[in-house]
Specification:
By secondary structure, the protein is an alpha+beta fold. The protein folds into 2 domains: about 140 residues, no CATH class; about 130 residues, hypothetical protein PF0899 fold, CATH 3.30.2320. The strands form 3 sheets. Strands 1, 2, 3, 6, 12 and 13 form a 6-stranded mixed beta sheet that branches. A hairpin with a 2-residue loop joins β9 and β10. The N terminus is likely disordered.
Length: about 350
C-alpha cells in the first residue's frame, strides 16, 4: 500500500494559527500537523509543542508594546541568568562613558590610557507566568480560533509583563522601575494636587527631564487617564498646548521634547508611577525560550471545553544600581524618574 503523503508543514506565525493547528491535530492524530508540530502527552490527553514553535512569537509580543519594544533583551538556555551589565553608578570619570571607556587624544608613540568599564553582576532566576484560555467546542467549531487567540493572548501577556516592569516587587517576580534602587522621585509643586496636575505638568516634565542621565533615549510613560487630560492641557503663559502634535517617532505627541506614550500598566492617577520619565534601554529583560503552548481536550471533558495553556519564563530588573552624578552634572541623575504621589 502506497503511504499517504502530506504537504510540507510550515511553522505557524501567530498564536491563533498554532491553536487552530493543534486542535486539528488533536481531532485527527494521523495528520501531518500532529507528527511535526506536537508531542502526545498521554497522561493528560493533550498536545504540547516543542520549544520553540514558532520562534517569532515572543518577538511579536515585545513589538506590541511601547514599553517592551525599548528594553534591553537577553536570553538564557537555562532556568537562571548570570551575566554582567554596565553600571555607570559605580564610578564616573572625566570624559569616560559606560563606566570607564575613554577616547583621549594620543600623541605619536604615546601610551594610550585606559580603564576597565565598570560592570555589575546580575543574577536572575526565571519566573514562569501562565494563562489558561478555555474554549467550548461550539466556539472552536463555529468561530475563527486564529482571530480569537490573536486578539486575547498577546495583549494578556504584554499587560502582565508591563505591570511587572513598572511596579514588580522583585520577590518571585521582575523588579519594577518604581521599586528599583535607582529611582529618582521628582517632587510636586507646592499647591499641586491630582485635580490640577495638568496645570503643572509642563513644569513637572521639564524638571523630570533634568533628572535624567540619558536624555536622548528618554520618553514619558503615563497612565492613559492622565494622558486624556494632558492632551488638552495648556501652559499658563501663552495658552499653547503642553503636548506637541504627533510625529512619526511620537504618535501621541511630545512633552518637553521627548515622546509621550500611554501605559495601561501604570499605577492609578495620583500615585507614584502614573507619570514616569525613563530610558527603557537601561532595563534588562531576560527570557528563556519562546512562549510555550499546550492544549488539553480532557481536563474539562464533561464541560465540553478545551483548555489552551500559554506559559512564558522570564525576569527583569533595572540595569542601574543607584543614581549617579555624570561628568557634566552637579547633582545625581538616573535613567528612571517618577513624579511623586499627589492627593
Amino acid at each position: 500500500m502506497k503511504p499517504t503523503s502530506h504537504p510540507t508543514n510550515r511553522a505557524p506565525s501567530t498564536i491563533g494559527e498554532f491553536c487552530a493547528l493543534v486542535r486539528s491535530a488533536t481531532l485527527d492524530p494521523s495528520s501531518g500537523a500532529a507528527r511535526t508540530l506536537n508531542t502526545n502527552v498521554g497522561s493528560e490527553g493533550g498536545f504540547l509543542t516543542p520549544a520553540p514553535v514558532p520562534s517569532s512569537l515572543i518577538s511579536s509580543i515585545f513589538q506590541r508594546s511601547y514599553l517592551l519594544d525599548r528594553v534591553t533583551r537577553r536570553s538564557t538556555p537555562t532556568g537562571s541568568y548570570d551575566g554582567y551589565v554596565v553600571d555607570e553608578s559605580l564610578t564616573t570619570g572625566a570624559g569616560s562613558r559606560f563606566g570607564g571607556l575613554e577616547l583621549p587624544e594620543v600623541g605619536q608613540s604615546g601610551t594610550i590610557p585606559f580603564r576597565h568599564p565598570d560592570l555589575r553582576r546580575v543574577s536572575l532566576a526565571m519566573v514562569k507566568n501562565a494563562v489558561i484560555v478555555p474554549a467550548t467546542s461550539e466556539l472552536a467549531e463555529d468561530a475563527n480560533l486564529t482571530e480569537f487567540f490573536n486578539e486575547i493572548v498577546p495583549p494578556t501577556l504584554v499587560g502582565l509583563m508591563e505591570r511587572r516592569i513598572v511596579g514588580g516587587s522583585g520577590a518571585g517576580q521582575a523588579l519594577g522601575v518604581i521599586n528599583g534602587p535607582a529611582l529618582v522621585t521628582q517632587a510636586i509643586e507646592g499647591t499641586q494636587t491630582i485635580a490640577n496636575t495638568p496645570q503643572f505638568i509642563a513644569t513637572n516634565a521639564a524638571k523630570m527631564l533634568g533628572q535624567m542621565a540619558d536624555i536622548e533615549s528618554a520618553a514619558y510613560y503615563v497612565n492613559p487617564e492622565l494622558l486624556t487630560s494632558l492632551l488638552t492641557a495648556t501652559t499658563n503663559s501663552n495658552e499653547k498646548t503642553v503636548i506637541t502634535p504627533p510625529d512619526a517617532l511620537a504618535p501621541f505627541g511630545r512633552i518637553a521634547t521627548r515622546p509621550l506614550y500611554p501605559n495601561a500598566a501604570a499605577p492609578a492617577v495620583g500615585t507614584l508611577g502614573d507619570f514616569v520619565c525613563a530610558s527603557m534601554s537601561n532595563y534588562l529583560v531576560v527570557t528563556r525560550g519562546d512562549v510555550q503552548q499546550a492544549v488539553s481536550m480532557h481536563v474539562r471533558f464533561l464541560q465540553d471545553e478545551q483548555l489552551f495553556r500559554f506559559t512564558i519564563r522570564w525576569n527583569g530588573a533595572p540595569m542601574l544600581s543607584r543614581p549617579f552624578t555624570p561628568e557634566w552634572a552637579t547633582t545625581p541623575k538616573s535613567h528612571y524618574v517618577a513624579l511623586a504621589a499627589r492627593v
